[in-house]
Amino acid sequence: QEDVFKKLVSHCKEYGFVFPSSEIYDGLAAVYDYGQMGVELKNNIKKYWWDSMVMLHENIVGIDSAIFMHPTIWKASGHVDAFNDPLIDNKDSKKRYRADVLIEDCIAKMDEKIEKEVEKAAKRFGDSFDEKLFRETNPRVLEHKAKRDELHARYAKAMNDGDLNELRQIILDYDIVCPISGTKNWTEVRQFNLMFSTEMGSTADGSMKVYLRPETAQGIFVNFLNVQKTGRMRIPFGIAQIGKAFRNEIVARQFIFRMREFEQMEMQFFVRPGEELKWFEKWKETRLKWHKALGLGDQKYRFHDHEKLAHYANAATDIEFEMPFGFKEVEGIHSRTNFDLGNHEKFSGKKIQYFDPELGESYTPYVIETSIGVDRMFLSVMAAAYCEETLDNGESRVVLRLPAPLAPVKVAVMPLVRKDGLPEKAREIINSLRFDFNCQYDEKDSIGKRYRRQDAIGTPFCVTVDHQTLEDHTVTVRFRDTMEQQRVDIDQLQSLIGEQVSL
Ligand code: ATP
Question: What is the pLDDT of residue 1?
C-alpha cells in the first residue's frame, strides 16, 4: 500500500497533476502547486460540490469572503487562544512532534495488538469461531483492552484539561520513543498556535497584526446578517463558500493530505435552537450520499463520531475515506451550537439575531457545519482511481478510473495518421466539441501509445479519425475503462459524451 502511494505521488507529478511548490529551489514543505491536469480535476471537484450544495438547494446561497479579516474575529472564534497543537521535541534527533499524535499512534498500536489476537484465533478456529465471545472473554484481549482504555482515558482527560505536563508524563510512562532516534529524551510540551500572522499597513503609521484565515467558516459567520437581510433568507438556510485556508501544520506529511496552504469547501446551515441535532443527522446522511454518488466504492467510506468535542461543538463526526495509508478524515460535520454567532455578538457589540416570523421571536441561530478539504478530496479521488492493470496480451497499463464528470480531459481526438486530411478532420471534430467539453488533440506516436497517455490522465473517451471517416462520417470511440471500441457517427459524439460526463 505504501508502495502504491509512492507511485501515485510520482504519477501526480509526471502527468501534471501536482508539483511540489518552488521545486527549483528544492521545494517548500507541505506546500504544493496544481499543474495543468490537477487544476482541471480540482475545478471539477469544486463544481461538483458547488452545484450540489448551492445550485440544487433553494435555501443555500454562496459567498466569497476575503482571506484577511479583522483580527478580533480570531479572538471571538477561539482560534487565538485555543487553536494550538501540543508540541514536544526529542533532544537527540532534534525532531519536533505533536504530543497528541505520538500518543494516538501508541493507542493505535495497542488496537492493532488486539486485532492480531483476534485474527490469529479466527485462523485457528475457522468457521466455528465466535468473534464476539472471544473479544469479551479472552484474557489476553481483555488485558490489552484494559491497558488501551486506561491510556485512552488518561489521554482524553489531559487533552480536555489542556494539561501539558500530563501529556509529557504519558509519553514517558508508556515508553514512547522518537521514531528517528529511538530514544525517550523528551523536552517539555509547549503549545504552538497554528495560525500564520503578518502585518497589515506600514509600520510608520502603525500596523496591525492580522492572520491568514485558518478556516473559511468565520467569513460566513461575520456575514450572516448581510446575507440573511439582503437575500431575505428564512431559517433554516445555509451559506456556502469555497476558499483558501492556512495552517502552520507541524506534522506535515502524506503529500497533499496535510498542507500548510489548502482549500476548503464549507457550508454553515443556520437552524432554530433545539433543532440542531435533527439537522446534524440530516447533513451527515446527505453528505455521505454525495460522496458515494461518485462511485468510488461505498465500502471506502465510514463515519467516525467524535467523543472529544471541540470547544464550540455539541456533536461532531468525520467522513473518513480509505486512503492508501488507512481510513482518514476528508470531511467534518459539526454541530457548532450558537458559539460563533454568540461570540461575534459579544466581541463586536452588534446584535446578531434572527427574528423568526413563525415563532414570533428573536434568537441566535444554531449552526450545522459541513467542511471538506478540496485537496483531501482530490487525493481520495486520485487514490481510488489509480490502477495498474495487466492486459490480456501481457502488456500493462496505468489507468486513472476517474469518475467521468471529474476527469480533466473528457475527450481526446486523434487522427490515425498525420496525412491524407485526417488531422484536418480531427481538428474539425474538436472544434465542434470544445465549447462543451475539455478536449485534447494528439497526433504524436502510435495510436496505442496515445491511448496509454490518455488512460494515465483519466480521459474517458478517445475518438480516432481514420480514412473511413472521410467516406462515411463515422469515427472510432474507445472507452477508457473497458478499452472497447465502437464505431459511431460524428453527430452522435456530443450526446454520447455528454451523457457520461454531466453531473
Ligand atoms: P485534522 O484532524 O486532519 O487536522 P481537522 O479536524 O483539523 O483535520 P477541520 O478543522 O475539521 O480539520 O477542517 C475541515 C476539513 O479541512 C478537513 O476535513 C480536511 O479535509 C481539511 N483540512 C484541514 N486541515 C487541512 C490541511 N492541513 N491540509 C489539507 N486539508 C485540510
Answer: 64
User: Which residue segment(s) compose the domain that 118 sits in?
Assistant: 84-191
Residues of the chain where predicted confidence (pLDDT) is lower than 70: 1, 203-205, 252, 503
Alpha carbon nearest to ligand 1 atom 11, residue:
332
CB atoms near residue 243 (< 10 Å): 18
pLDDT at 203: 66
Geometric angle at alpha carbon 259, from 191 and 341, rounded to 5°: 65
What integer pLDDT is reported at residue 442 of this predicted model? 96
259 within ligand 1 shell (Cβ under 6 A): yes
Find the CATH number of the domain harbouring 92.
3.30.40.230
Q: Is 371 in the pocket of ligand 1 (CB under 6 A)?
A: yes
Calculate how far, in angstroms, residue 373's C-alpha sits from the geometric centre of ligand 1: 6
The alpha-carbon radius of gyration of the chain (Å, integer) is 27
Half-sphere exposure of 179 (CA within 13 A, CB side): 10
- 3 state SS of 187: strand
Question: Of 84, 82, 80, 90, whose CA–CA distance to 168 is shortest?
Answer: 90
Q: Is residue 79 part of a domain?
A: no
Compute, in angstroms, the gap from residue 480 CA to the centroid of ligand 1.
33
- In which residue are the cell numbers 474538436 written? 430
Q: Which of 242, 264, 330, 379 to mutate to test the pocket of ligand 1 (most atoms within 8 A of CB)?
A: 264
Name which residue sits closest to atom 25 of ligand 1, judged by CA. 258
Which atom of ligand 1 has the smallest separation from the CA of 377?
20
**Nearest Cα residue to 62 out of 221, 260, 242, 192:** 242
Amino acid 204: pLDDT:
65
Question: What's the length of the chain?
Answer: 503
Residue 205 shares a structural domain with residue 338: yes
Q: Which three cell numbers stand for residue 374?
A: 478540496
